[in-house]
Amino acid sequence: MADVGTLNTTSAGIDAVAPKLGEGPSGPRPRPAVSARNIMLYGTLTIAALYYLLPLYVMVVTSLKGMPEIRLGNIFSPPMEITFEPWVKAWAQACTGLNCDGLSRGFWNSVRITVPSVIISIAIASVNGYALANWRFRGSELFFSILIVGAFIPYQVMIYPIVIILREIGIYGTLTGLIVVHSIFGMPILTLLFRNYFVSLPEELFKAARVDGAGFWQIFLRIMLPMSLPIFVVAMILQVTGIWNDFLFGVVFTRPDTYPMTVQLNNIVNSVQGVKEYNVNMAATILTGLVPLIVYFVSGRLFVRGIAAGAVKG
Amino acid sequence: MTGQARAGRPNKLLRNLNAKIASIPMILTALVIFVGGTLWTVFYSFTNSKLLPRLSFVGFDQYERLWAAPRWVTAIENLAVYGILSLIFSLVIGFMLAALMDQKIRFENTFRTIFLYPFALSFIVTGLVWQWVLNPDFGIQAVVRSMGWTSFTFNPLYTPEIVIYGILIAALWQGTGLVMCLMLAGLRGIDEDIWKAARVDGIPMWRTYLFIVIPMMRPVFITTIVIIASGIVKVYDLVVAQTSGGPGISSEVPAKYVYDYMFQAQNLGQGFAASTMMLVTVAIIIVPWAYLEFGGGRKRG
Protein backbone atom coordinates (compact mmCIF):
# COMPACT_ATOMS: atom_id res chain seq x y z
CA MET A 1 0.00 0.00 0.00
CA ALA A 2 2.87 2.36 0.66
CA ASP A 3 3.89 2.19 -3.00
CA VAL A 4 0.42 3.13 -4.11
CA GLY A 5 0.56 6.11 -1.79
CA THR A 6 3.64 7.50 -3.44
CA LEU A 7 2.26 6.94 -6.91
CA ASN A 8 -0.91 8.80 -6.09
CA THR A 9 0.75 12.18 -6.29
CA THR A 10 -0.95 13.32 -9.48
CA SER A 11 -4.20 12.44 -11.16
CA ALA A 12 -2.19 11.21 -14.14
CA GLY A 13 -0.46 8.78 -11.83
CA ILE A 14 -3.76 7.53 -10.52
CA ASP A 15 -5.07 6.98 -14.07
CA ALA A 16 -1.97 5.01 -14.96
CA VAL A 17 -2.22 2.55 -12.08
CA ALA A 18 -5.97 2.40 -11.64
CA PRO A 19 -6.63 -0.47 -14.09
CA LYS A 20 -3.97 -2.61 -12.44
CA LEU A 21 -5.55 -2.27 -9.03
CA GLY A 22 -8.51 -4.42 -9.99
CA GLU A 23 -11.01 -4.02 -7.19
CA GLY A 24 -9.43 -0.71 -6.16
CA PRO A 25 -8.18 0.30 -2.76
CA SER A 26 -10.40 0.12 0.28
CA GLY A 27 -10.59 2.76 3.00
CA PRO A 28 -10.02 6.48 2.61
CA ARG A 29 -7.70 7.65 -0.08
CA PRO A 30 -4.28 8.45 1.42
CA ARG A 31 -3.49 12.12 1.47
CA PRO A 32 -0.76 12.92 -0.99
CA ALA A 33 2.39 14.19 0.69
CA VAL A 34 3.31 16.52 -2.15
CA SER A 35 0.37 18.52 -3.45
CA ALA A 36 -0.09 22.05 -4.71
CA ARG A 37 -1.81 22.83 -1.45
CA ASN A 38 1.02 21.52 0.69
CA ILE A 39 3.66 23.28 -1.37
CA MET A 40 1.82 26.56 -0.91
CA LEU A 41 1.27 25.92 2.77
CA TYR A 42 4.76 24.90 3.76
CA GLY A 43 6.32 27.29 1.26
CA THR A 44 4.56 30.27 2.81
CA LEU A 45 5.32 29.13 6.34
CA THR A 46 8.96 28.54 5.53
CA ILE A 47 9.40 31.94 3.91
CA ALA A 48 7.73 33.57 6.91
CA ALA A 49 9.98 31.57 9.25
CA LEU A 50 13.05 32.72 7.34
CA TYR A 51 11.96 36.33 7.75
CA TYR A 52 11.62 35.86 11.49
CA LEU A 53 14.94 34.05 11.77
CA LEU A 54 16.92 36.44 9.60
CA PRO A 55 17.72 39.06 12.27
CA LEU A 56 18.82 36.35 14.70
CA TYR A 57 21.12 34.91 12.05
CA VAL A 58 22.51 38.36 11.24
CA MET A 59 23.14 39.05 14.92
CA VAL A 60 25.04 35.82 15.49
CA VAL A 61 27.02 36.05 12.27
CA THR A 62 28.03 39.68 12.85
CA SER A 63 29.10 39.03 16.42
CA LEU A 64 31.53 36.35 15.26
CA LYS A 65 33.31 38.48 12.66
CA GLY A 66 36.30 40.76 13.03
CA MET A 67 35.93 44.43 12.12
CA PRO A 68 37.93 44.22 8.84
CA GLU A 69 35.63 41.47 7.65
CA ILE A 70 32.55 43.50 8.50
CA ARG A 71 33.79 46.46 6.48
CA LEU A 72 34.40 44.20 3.49
CA GLY A 73 31.40 41.94 3.34
CA ASN A 74 27.67 42.21 3.76
CA ILE A 75 25.75 41.36 6.88
CA PHE A 76 24.43 38.07 5.51
CA SER A 77 27.73 36.48 4.58
CA PRO A 78 28.90 33.89 7.11
CA PRO A 79 32.13 34.67 8.97
CA MET A 80 35.29 33.48 7.29
CA GLU A 81 37.23 33.49 10.52
CA ILE A 82 35.25 32.97 13.66
CA THR A 83 36.37 35.13 16.56
CA PHE A 84 34.92 35.39 20.04
CA GLU A 85 36.76 38.58 20.81
CA PRO A 86 33.67 40.81 20.27
CA TRP A 87 31.84 38.78 22.90
CA VAL A 88 34.64 39.18 25.41
CA LYS A 89 34.81 42.87 24.69
CA ALA A 90 31.06 43.37 24.96
CA TRP A 91 30.97 41.57 28.27
CA ALA A 92 34.04 43.03 29.94
CA GLN A 93 35.41 46.12 28.18
CA ALA A 94 32.79 48.07 26.23
CA CYS A 95 32.37 51.64 27.42
CA THR A 96 29.27 53.50 28.55
CA GLY A 97 30.12 57.01 29.54
CA LEU A 98 32.98 56.83 32.01
CA ASN A 99 32.64 53.16 32.89
CA CYS A 100 34.52 50.72 30.72
CA ASP A 101 33.67 47.42 32.33
CA GLY A 102 31.30 46.24 29.63
CA LEU A 103 27.85 44.77 29.98
CA SER A 104 28.80 42.69 33.01
CA ARG A 105 27.88 45.58 35.31
CA GLY A 106 24.46 45.95 33.71
CA PHE A 107 23.93 42.21 33.76
CA TRP A 108 24.47 41.98 37.51
CA ASN A 109 22.33 45.07 38.05
CA SER A 110 19.55 43.44 36.04
CA VAL A 111 19.88 40.26 38.10
CA ARG A 112 19.74 42.24 41.33
CA ILE A 113 16.66 44.07 40.04
CA THR A 114 14.83 41.12 38.50
CA VAL A 115 15.14 38.54 41.26
CA PRO A 116 13.68 40.59 44.14
CA SER A 117 11.13 42.31 41.87
CA VAL A 118 9.80 38.97 40.65
CA ILE A 119 9.61 37.51 44.16
CA ILE A 120 7.99 40.57 45.73
CA SER A 121 5.50 41.24 42.95
CA ILE A 122 4.39 37.60 42.83
CA ALA A 123 4.12 37.37 46.62
CA ILE A 124 1.96 40.48 46.80
CA ALA A 125 -0.14 39.65 43.77
CA SER A 126 -0.83 36.06 44.81
CA VAL A 127 -2.13 37.20 48.20
CA ASN A 128 -4.17 39.92 46.49
CA GLY A 129 -5.66 37.42 44.08
CA TYR A 130 -6.45 35.04 46.92
CA ALA A 131 -8.13 37.77 48.97
CA LEU A 132 -10.15 38.88 45.95
CA ALA A 133 -11.20 35.35 45.10
CA ASN A 134 -12.07 34.03 48.55
CA TRP A 135 -12.22 36.85 51.09
CA ARG A 136 -14.01 39.67 49.40
CA PHE A 137 -14.70 42.69 51.54
CA ARG A 138 -16.60 45.81 50.77
CA GLY A 139 -14.58 47.86 48.31
CA SER A 140 -12.28 45.04 47.28
CA GLU A 141 -13.82 44.78 43.82
CA LEU A 142 -13.59 48.55 43.45
CA PHE A 143 -9.86 48.60 44.19
CA PHE A 144 -9.42 45.71 41.83
CA SER A 145 -11.26 47.58 39.06
CA ILE A 146 -9.07 50.63 39.61
CA LEU A 147 -6.02 48.39 39.40
CA ILE A 148 -7.13 46.86 36.11
CA VAL A 149 -8.06 50.20 34.56
CA GLY A 150 -4.72 51.49 35.84
CA ALA A 151 -2.93 48.89 33.75
CA PHE A 152 -4.02 50.78 30.65
CA ILE A 153 -2.86 54.20 31.80
CA PRO A 154 0.36 55.13 29.98
CA TYR A 155 3.26 54.91 32.42
CA GLN A 156 4.33 58.40 31.43
CA VAL A 157 1.32 59.79 33.27
CA MET A 158 2.38 58.29 36.61
CA ILE A 159 6.15 58.48 36.36
CA TYR A 160 6.76 61.92 37.78
CA PRO A 161 4.64 61.54 40.91
CA ILE A 162 6.51 58.29 41.57
CA VAL A 163 9.82 60.10 41.18
CA ILE A 164 8.69 62.54 43.85
CA ILE A 165 7.48 59.79 46.18
CA LEU A 166 10.71 57.81 45.82
CA ARG A 167 12.78 60.95 46.35
CA GLU A 168 10.85 61.74 49.52
CA ILE A 169 11.44 58.23 50.85
CA GLY A 170 15.08 58.52 49.82
CA ILE A 171 15.33 55.59 47.42
CA TYR A 172 15.28 57.46 44.10
CA GLY A 173 18.09 56.28 41.84
CA THR A 174 18.69 53.09 43.83
CA LEU A 175 17.97 49.53 42.88
CA THR A 176 15.45 49.37 45.73
CA GLY A 177 13.46 52.16 44.12
CA LEU A 178 13.31 50.37 40.81
CA ILE A 179 12.28 47.13 42.55
CA VAL A 180 9.38 48.97 44.18
CA VAL A 181 8.33 50.40 40.82
CA HIS A 182 8.38 46.99 39.14
CA SER A 183 6.37 45.49 41.98
CA ILE A 184 3.77 48.23 41.61
CA PHE A 185 3.39 47.96 37.86
CA GLY A 186 3.42 44.19 37.87
CA MET A 187 0.50 44.15 40.27
CA PRO A 188 -2.52 44.65 37.96
CA ILE A 189 -1.86 41.84 35.56
CA LEU A 190 -0.53 39.40 38.16
CA THR A 191 -3.43 40.06 40.51
CA LEU A 192 -5.85 39.39 37.65
CA LEU A 193 -3.98 36.20 36.84
CA PHE A 194 -4.05 34.88 40.42
CA ARG A 195 -7.59 35.99 41.08
CA ASN A 196 -8.87 34.13 38.03
CA TYR A 197 -6.89 31.07 39.01
CA PHE A 198 -8.09 30.97 42.62
CA VAL A 199 -11.69 31.56 41.52
CA SER A 200 -11.42 28.48 39.31
CA LEU A 201 -10.37 26.22 42.20
CA PRO A 202 -13.25 24.20 43.73
CA GLU A 203 -14.89 26.22 46.45
CA GLU A 204 -15.58 23.11 48.56
CA LEU A 205 -11.89 22.91 49.44
CA PHE A 206 -11.94 26.38 50.84
CA LYS A 207 -15.18 25.79 52.71
CA ALA A 208 -13.96 22.52 54.22
CA ALA A 209 -10.81 24.22 55.46
CA ARG A 210 -12.84 26.97 57.05
CA VAL A 211 -15.08 24.47 58.77
CA ASP A 212 -11.94 22.88 60.14
CA GLY A 213 -11.05 26.24 61.62
CA ALA A 214 -8.28 27.35 59.29
CA GLY A 215 -7.75 31.09 58.91
CA PHE A 216 -6.75 33.42 56.10
CA TRP A 217 -3.03 32.65 56.07
CA GLN A 218 -3.38 28.98 56.96
CA ILE A 219 -5.67 28.30 54.03
CA PHE A 220 -3.39 30.27 51.73
CA LEU A 221 -0.18 28.55 52.77
CA ARG A 222 -1.44 25.02 53.32
CA ILE A 223 -4.11 24.63 50.64
CA MET A 224 -3.93 27.29 47.97
CA LEU A 225 -0.15 27.49 47.48
CA PRO A 226 0.49 23.77 46.97
CA MET A 227 -2.27 23.68 44.37
CA SER A 228 -1.12 26.63 42.34
CA LEU A 229 2.34 25.76 41.14
CA PRO A 230 1.41 26.10 37.42
CA ILE A 231 0.12 29.63 37.79
CA PHE A 232 3.20 30.61 39.80
CA VAL A 233 5.41 29.37 36.99
CA VAL A 234 3.39 31.33 34.43
CA ALA A 235 3.59 34.47 36.57
CA MET A 236 7.31 34.00 37.00
CA ILE A 237 7.95 33.68 33.26
CA LEU A 238 5.86 36.77 32.65
CA GLN A 239 7.70 38.82 35.25
CA VAL A 240 11.22 37.65 34.49
CA THR A 241 10.93 38.49 30.79
CA GLY A 242 8.97 41.68 31.43
CA ILE A 243 11.31 43.10 34.05
CA TRP A 244 14.47 42.00 32.29
CA ASN A 245 13.30 43.66 29.07
CA ASP A 246 12.18 46.89 30.70
CA PHE A 247 13.84 50.04 29.49
CA LEU A 248 11.67 53.02 30.45
CA PHE A 249 11.67 52.45 34.22
CA GLY A 250 15.34 51.60 34.15
CA VAL A 251 16.25 54.82 32.45
CA VAL A 252 13.99 56.96 34.66
CA PHE A 253 14.60 55.45 38.07
CA THR A 254 18.28 54.51 38.07
CA ARG A 255 21.61 56.25 37.76
CA PRO A 256 24.53 55.25 35.52
CA ASP A 257 26.08 52.90 38.07
CA THR A 258 22.77 51.15 38.70
CA TYR A 259 21.59 50.97 35.07
CA PRO A 260 19.99 47.67 34.09
CA MET A 261 21.34 45.80 31.11
CA THR A 262 18.89 47.17 28.51
CA VAL A 263 19.76 50.77 29.31
CA GLN A 264 23.47 50.04 29.28
CA LEU A 265 23.15 48.19 25.97
CA ASN A 266 21.42 51.14 24.34
CA ASN A 267 24.13 53.47 25.61
CA ILE A 268 26.91 51.24 24.31
CA VAL A 269 25.41 50.84 20.85
CA ASN A 270 24.07 54.34 20.36
CA SER A 271 27.07 56.18 21.79
CA VAL A 272 28.21 58.89 19.44
CA GLN A 273 31.95 58.91 20.09
CA GLY A 274 34.49 56.61 18.53
CA VAL A 275 34.40 54.02 15.79
CA LYS A 276 31.26 51.93 15.69
CA GLU A 277 32.21 48.37 16.48
CA TYR A 278 29.30 46.56 14.96
CA ASN A 279 30.51 43.14 15.99
CA VAL A 280 30.77 44.16 19.63
CA ASN A 281 27.36 45.82 19.40
CA MET A 282 25.74 42.67 18.09
CA ALA A 283 27.45 40.50 20.68
CA ALA A 284 26.16 42.88 23.35
CA THR A 285 22.67 42.69 21.87
CA ILE A 286 22.67 38.90 21.96
CA LEU A 287 23.98 38.88 25.52
CA THR A 288 21.13 41.15 26.60
CA GLY A 289 18.53 39.04 24.82
CA LEU A 290 19.93 35.78 26.14
CA VAL A 291 18.11 35.59 29.46
CA PRO A 292 14.57 36.07 28.07
CA LEU A 293 15.42 33.80 25.14
CA ILE A 294 16.55 31.04 27.48
CA VAL A 295 13.39 31.49 29.55
CA TYR A 296 11.38 31.31 26.34
CA PHE A 297 13.02 28.17 24.97
CA VAL A 298 13.06 26.33 28.28
CA SER A 299 9.48 27.09 29.21
CA GLY A 300 7.98 26.51 25.75
CA ARG A 301 4.27 25.99 26.11
CA LEU A 302 4.11 27.76 29.47
CA PHE A 303 5.54 30.89 27.89
CA VAL A 304 2.64 30.95 25.45
CA ARG A 305 0.20 30.64 28.33
CA GLY A 306 2.02 33.34 30.21
CA ILE A 307 1.89 35.90 27.45
CA ALA A 308 -1.70 35.03 26.62
CA ALA A 309 -2.58 35.69 30.24
CA GLY A 310 -0.44 38.76 30.59
CA ALA A 311 -0.27 40.25 27.14
CA VAL A 312 -1.95 43.33 28.51
CA LYS A 313 1.26 44.44 30.18
CA GLY A 314 3.89 46.23 28.10
CA MET B 1 -14.19 51.53 53.98
CA THR B 2 -13.93 52.19 57.69
CA GLY B 3 -17.68 51.97 58.19
CA GLN B 4 -17.26 48.19 58.33
CA ALA B 5 -16.45 48.38 62.04
CA ARG B 6 -20.09 48.33 63.07
CA ALA B 7 -20.84 45.01 61.35
CA GLY B 8 -22.88 42.68 63.53
CA ARG B 9 -20.70 39.58 63.71
CA PRO B 10 -17.25 40.19 65.18
CA ASN B 11 -16.06 36.82 63.92
CA LYS B 12 -16.58 37.83 60.29
CA LEU B 13 -15.05 41.19 60.95
CA LEU B 14 -11.87 39.60 62.24
CA ARG B 15 -11.52 37.39 59.19
CA ASN B 16 -12.09 40.29 56.87
CA LEU B 17 -9.47 42.22 58.76
CA ASN B 18 -6.80 39.77 57.64
CA ALA B 19 -7.86 40.08 54.03
CA LYS B 20 -7.81 43.83 54.36
CA ILE B 21 -4.35 43.89 55.86
CA ALA B 22 -3.15 41.62 53.09
CA SER B 23 -4.70 43.93 50.51
CA ILE B 24 -2.98 47.07 51.77
CA PRO B 25 -0.32 47.07 49.01
CA MET B 26 -3.04 46.72 46.40
CA ILE B 27 -5.18 49.45 47.92
CA LEU B 28 -2.21 51.79 48.23
CA THR B 29 -1.16 51.14 44.65
CA ALA B 30 -4.65 51.64 43.30
CA LEU B 31 -5.32 54.83 45.25
CA VAL B 32 -1.93 56.50 45.59
CA ILE B 33 -0.19 55.55 42.35
CA PHE B 34 -2.95 54.96 39.84
CA VAL B 35 -5.59 57.43 40.96
CA GLY B 36 -3.38 59.86 42.88
CA GLY B 37 -0.52 59.90 40.40
CA THR B 38 -2.80 60.39 37.43
CA LEU B 39 -4.78 63.20 39.04
CA TRP B 40 -1.56 64.84 40.18
CA THR B 41 -0.14 64.87 36.66
CA VAL B 42 -3.36 66.14 35.10
CA PHE B 43 -3.58 68.81 37.81
CA TYR B 44 -0.02 70.03 37.31
CA SER B 45 -0.42 70.09 33.53
CA PHE B 46 -2.29 73.36 34.05
CA THR B 47 0.71 75.02 35.71
CA ASN B 48 3.86 76.45 34.22
CA SER B 49 6.21 74.14 36.13
CA LYS B 50 9.70 74.21 34.71
CA LEU B 51 12.52 72.54 36.62
CA LEU B 52 10.35 71.71 39.62
CA PRO B 53 6.58 71.32 39.88
CA ARG B 54 5.03 74.52 41.22
CA LEU B 55 1.55 75.78 41.63
CA SER B 56 1.17 78.74 39.29
CA PHE B 57 -1.78 78.07 37.09
CA VAL B 58 -1.77 79.10 33.47
CA GLY B 59 -4.96 77.45 32.26
CA PHE B 60 -4.61 75.70 28.93
CA ASP B 61 -1.37 77.47 27.99
CA GLN B 62 0.69 74.29 28.09
CA TYR B 63 -1.75 72.58 25.75
CA GLU B 64 -1.76 75.48 23.34
CA ARG B 65 2.01 75.44 23.30
CA LEU B 66 1.99 71.68 22.86
CA TRP B 67 -0.20 71.76 19.78
CA ALA B 68 1.78 74.67 18.34
CA ALA B 69 5.03 72.69 18.64
CA PRO B 70 6.05 71.08 15.32
CA ARG B 71 7.79 68.36 17.29
CA TRP B 72 4.55 67.32 19.03
CA VAL B 73 2.54 67.47 15.81
CA THR B 74 5.14 65.26 14.14
CA ALA B 75 4.94 62.88 17.09
CA ILE B 76 1.15 62.63 16.78
CA GLU B 77 1.30 62.13 13.01
CA ASN B 78 3.90 59.42 13.45
CA LEU B 79 1.81 57.72 16.10
CA ALA B 80 -1.24 57.82 13.84
CA VAL B 81 0.60 56.33 10.85
CA TYR B 82 2.44 53.80 12.98
CA GLY B 83 -0.68 52.94 14.95
CA ILE B 84 -3.08 52.43 12.07
CA LEU B 85 -0.59 50.46 9.98
CA SER B 86 0.67 48.29 12.80
CA LEU B 87 -2.90 47.51 13.83
CA ILE B 88 -3.89 46.49 10.30
CA PHE B 89 -0.71 44.60 9.47
CA SER B 90 -0.38 42.75 12.74
CA LEU B 91 -4.01 41.62 12.56
CA VAL B 92 -3.75 40.54 8.92
CA ILE B 93 -0.34 38.88 9.21
CA GLY B 94 -1.15 37.37 12.58
CA PHE B 95 -4.43 35.95 11.35
CA MET B 96 -2.97 34.58 8.12
CA LEU B 97 -0.14 32.87 9.97
CA ALA B 98 -2.63 31.44 12.45
CA ALA B 99 -4.88 30.20 9.63
CA LEU B 100 -1.89 28.49 8.00
CA MET B 101 -0.83 26.99 11.31
CA ASP B 102 -4.35 25.68 11.84
CA GLN B 103 -4.20 23.41 8.77
CA LYS B 104 -3.05 20.42 10.84
CA ILE B 105 0.50 20.97 9.70
CA ARG B 106 3.60 19.12 10.71
CA PHE B 107 6.26 20.87 12.78
CA GLU B 108 3.63 23.16 14.23
CA ASN B 109 5.69 23.62 17.39
CA THR B 110 8.79 24.53 15.45
CA PHE B 111 6.97 27.15 13.41
CA ARG B 112 5.26 28.58 16.46
CA THR B 113 8.57 28.81 18.28
CA ILE B 114 10.12 30.67 15.36
CA PHE B 115 7.26 33.13 14.95
CA LEU B 116 7.03 33.88 18.63
CA TYR B 117 10.63 34.13 19.79
CA PRO B 118 11.02 37.83 18.87
CA PHE B 119 8.30 38.58 21.39
CA ALA B 120 10.60 37.39 24.17
CA LEU B 121 13.13 40.03 23.18
CA SER B 122 12.98 43.59 24.43
CA PHE B 123 12.19 46.51 22.16
CA ILE B 124 15.74 47.73 22.73
CA VAL B 125 17.19 44.51 21.36
CA THR B 126 14.65 44.50 18.51
CA GLY B 127 15.45 48.09 17.63
CA LEU B 128 19.20 47.55 17.62
CA VAL B 129 18.98 44.44 15.46
CA TRP B 130 16.84 46.14 12.86
CA GLN B 131 19.01 49.21 12.97
CA TRP B 132 21.77 46.87 11.86
CA VAL B 133 19.73 44.98 9.23
CA LEU B 134 18.54 48.28 7.74
CA ASN B 135 21.99 49.89 7.90
CA PRO B 136 22.49 51.42 4.43
CA ASP B 137 26.22 50.66 4.25
CA PHE B 138 26.09 47.00 5.28
CA GLY B 139 22.48 45.85 5.39
CA ILE B 140 19.78 45.06 2.86
CA GLN B 141 20.56 48.03 0.62
CA ALA B 142 24.25 47.14 0.41
CA VAL B 143 23.48 43.48 -0.23
CA VAL B 144 21.09 44.18 -3.11
CA ARG B 145 23.53 46.69 -4.61
CA SER B 146 26.38 44.23 -4.43
CA MET B 147 24.29 41.80 -6.47
CA GLY B 148 24.37 44.24 -9.37
CA TRP B 149 21.39 46.55 -8.88
CA THR B 150 23.53 49.55 -8.02
CA SER B 151 20.79 52.16 -7.90
CA PHE B 152 18.69 50.21 -5.39
CA THR B 153 17.74 52.38 -2.47
CA PHE B 154 16.23 51.08 0.74
CA ASN B 155 17.30 53.30 3.55
CA PRO B 156 14.30 53.97 5.76
CA LEU B 157 16.11 54.86 8.98
CA TYR B 158 17.97 57.79 7.45
CA THR B 159 15.16 59.08 5.25
CA PRO B 160 12.84 61.44 7.18
CA GLU B 161 9.78 60.76 5.02
CA ILE B 162 9.74 57.02 5.57
CA VAL B 163 11.60 56.53 8.85
CA ILE B 164 8.39 55.56 10.65
CA TYR B 165 7.97 52.61 8.26
CA GLY B 166 11.44 51.41 9.24
CA ILE B 167 10.26 51.38 12.84
CA LEU B 168 7.06 49.65 11.80
CA ILE B 169 9.00 46.77 10.19
CA ALA B 170 10.80 46.11 13.46
CA ALA B 171 7.61 46.44 15.51
CA LEU B 172 5.79 43.92 13.31
CA TRP B 173 8.69 41.50 13.53
CA GLN B 174 8.50 41.67 17.31
CA GLY B 175 4.74 41.63 17.78
CA THR B 176 3.05 39.53 15.10
CA GLY B 177 3.99 36.28 16.83
CA LEU B 178 1.84 37.24 19.78
CA VAL B 179 -1.11 38.11 17.54
CA MET B 180 -0.64 34.80 15.74
CA CYS B 181 -0.79 32.98 19.09
CA LEU B 182 -3.96 34.74 20.20
CA MET B 183 -5.61 34.15 16.83
CA LEU B 184 -4.57 30.51 16.81
CA ALA B 185 -6.16 30.06 20.22
CA GLY B 186 -9.30 31.70 18.82
CA LEU B 187 -9.36 29.43 15.77
CA ARG B 188 -8.93 26.36 17.95
CA GLY B 189 -11.96 27.49 19.89
CA ILE B 190 -14.18 27.28 16.79
CA ASP B 191 -16.30 24.14 16.69
CA GLU B 192 -15.14 21.56 14.15
CA ASP B 193 -18.79 21.12 13.08
CA ILE B 194 -18.86 24.65 11.66
CA TRP B 195 -16.13 23.67 9.22
CA LYS B 196 -17.93 20.45 8.30
CA ALA B 197 -21.18 22.27 7.71
CA ALA B 198 -19.46 24.86 5.53
CA ARG B 199 -17.78 22.11 3.51
CA VAL B 200 -21.06 20.26 3.03
CA ASP B 201 -22.65 23.46 1.79
CA GLY B 202 -19.78 23.85 -0.66
CA ILE B 203 -18.64 27.21 0.67
CA PRO B 204 -15.06 27.94 -0.38
CA MET B 205 -12.52 28.11 2.41
CA TRP B 206 -11.75 31.81 2.13
CA ARG B 207 -15.44 32.66 2.34
CA THR B 208 -15.83 30.47 5.39
CA TYR B 209 -13.00 32.37 7.06
CA LEU B 210 -14.26 35.77 6.03
CA PHE B 211 -17.97 35.43 6.69
CA ILE B 212 -18.26 32.72 9.33
CA VAL B 213 -15.06 32.20 11.30
CA ILE B 214 -13.90 35.80 11.69
CA PRO B 215 -17.28 37.05 12.90
CA MET B 216 -17.32 34.18 15.40
CA MET B 217 -13.92 35.25 16.67
CA ARG B 218 -15.09 38.74 17.53
CA PRO B 219 -14.07 38.55 21.23
CA VAL B 220 -10.56 37.41 20.32
CA PHE B 221 -10.25 40.25 17.83
CA ILE B 222 -11.43 42.82 20.35
CA THR B 223 -8.98 41.60 23.00
CA THR B 224 -6.15 41.58 20.48
CA ILE B 225 -6.96 45.06 19.24
CA VAL B 226 -7.02 46.44 22.78
CA ILE B 227 -3.68 44.78 23.53
CA ILE B 228 -2.06 46.09 20.35
CA ALA B 229 -3.56 49.55 20.71
CA SER B 230 -2.47 50.08 24.30
CA GLY B 231 1.02 48.98 23.27
CA ILE B 232 1.04 51.41 20.35
CA VAL B 233 0.36 54.45 22.53
CA LYS B 234 3.28 53.51 24.78
CA VAL B 235 5.81 52.94 21.99
CA TYR B 236 9.08 54.37 23.21
CA ASP B 237 12.01 51.96 23.56
CA LEU B 238 11.87 50.89 19.94
CA VAL B 239 12.24 54.44 18.66
CA VAL B 240 15.00 55.22 21.14
CA ALA B 241 16.98 52.16 20.09
CA GLN B 242 16.43 52.47 16.36
CA THR B 243 16.65 56.18 15.59
CA SER B 244 16.57 58.20 18.86
CA GLY B 245 13.78 60.15 17.20
CA GLY B 246 15.87 61.10 14.18
CA PRO B 247 16.77 62.06 11.58
CA GLY B 248 15.98 65.44 13.11
CA ILE B 249 12.58 65.05 14.74
CA SER B 250 11.09 62.88 12.02
CA SER B 251 10.55 59.73 14.09
CA GLU B 252 9.44 61.46 17.28
CA VAL B 253 6.61 59.77 19.23
CA PRO B 254 4.51 61.12 22.13
CA ALA B 255 6.05 58.86 24.79
CA LYS B 256 9.49 60.12 23.86
CA TYR B 257 8.31 63.73 23.82
CA VAL B 258 7.04 63.29 27.38
CA TYR B 259 10.28 61.75 28.58
CA ASP B 260 12.46 64.38 26.94
CA TYR B 261 10.50 67.31 28.36
CA MET B 262 10.23 65.83 31.86
CA PHE B 263 13.77 64.60 32.36
CA GLN B 264 15.96 66.36 29.85
CA ALA B 265 14.52 69.72 28.80
CA GLN B 266 13.40 70.37 32.41
CA ASN B 267 10.08 71.63 31.18
CA LEU B 268 7.73 69.69 33.41
CA GLY B 269 4.55 71.53 32.43
CA GLN B 270 4.97 70.50 28.79
CA GLY B 271 5.72 66.94 29.85
CA PHE B 272 2.60 66.79 32.01
CA ALA B 273 0.41 68.24 29.27
CA ALA B 274 1.79 65.80 26.72
CA SER B 275 1.30 62.83 29.04
CA THR B 276 -2.25 63.96 29.76
CA MET B 277 -2.89 63.93 26.02
CA MET B 278 -1.60 60.35 25.96
CA LEU B 279 -4.04 59.50 28.73
CA VAL B 280 -6.88 61.03 26.73
CA THR B 281 -5.87 58.95 23.70
CA VAL B 282 -5.93 55.76 25.74
CA ALA B 283 -9.28 56.69 27.25
CA ILE B 284 -10.69 57.13 23.76
CA ILE B 285 -9.59 53.57 22.96
CA ILE B 286 -10.46 51.92 26.26
CA VAL B 287 -13.82 53.44 27.13
CA PRO B 288 -15.67 52.09 24.07
CA TRP B 289 -14.04 48.71 24.61
CA ALA B 290 -15.00 48.61 28.28
CA TYR B 291 -18.51 49.61 27.30
CA LEU B 292 -18.77 46.82 24.73
CA GLU B 293 -17.16 44.29 27.00
CA PHE B 294 -19.02 45.02 30.21
CA GLY B 295 -22.09 46.64 28.71
CA GLY B 296 -22.07 49.42 31.27
CA GLY B 297 -24.03 47.24 33.71
CA ARG B 298 -21.63 46.33 36.48
CA LYS B 299 -22.40 43.55 38.89
CA ARG B 300 -22.16 44.13 42.61
CA GLY B 301 -19.31 46.23 43.91
UniProtKB/TrEMBL annotation, chain A:
Domain ABC transmembrane type-1: 107-299
Keywords: Membrane, Transmembrane, Transmembrane helix, Transport
Top-rank taxon: Bacteria
Membrane-spanning segments: 39-60, 113-133, 142-163, 169-198, 219-244, 282-304
UniProt-listed Gene3D superfamilies: MetI-like
Pfam families reported in the protein's UniProt record: BPD_transp_1
Keyword Nuclease: no
InterPro entries xrefs: MetI-like, MetI-like_sf
Name the UniProt record assigns to this protein: Carbohydrate ABC transporter permease
Organism in which the protein naturally occurs: Rhizobium indicum
From TrEMBL, chain B:
Localization per record: Cell membrane
Transmembrane segments: 21-46, 79-101, 113-133, 162-187, 208-233, 272-292
Key words of the record: Cell membrane, Membrane, Transmembrane, Transmembrane helix, Transport
InterPro entries: ABC_transporter_permease, MetI-like, MetI-like_sf
SUPFAM superfamilies: MetI-like
Keyword Transport: yes
Highest taxon in the source lineage: Bacteria
Nucleotide-binding is among the record's keywords: no
A cellular component term, taken from the record's GO annotations: plasma membrane
Coarse class of the protein's main subcellular location: membrane
GO biological process: transmembrane transport
Boundaries of every ABC transmembrane type-1 domain copy: 76-291
Gene3D superfamilies on file: MetI-like
Membrane-protein topology: Multi-pass membrane protein
The family this protein is said to belong to: Belongs to the binding-protein-dependent transport system permease family.
Annotated protein name in UniProt: ABC transporter permease subunit
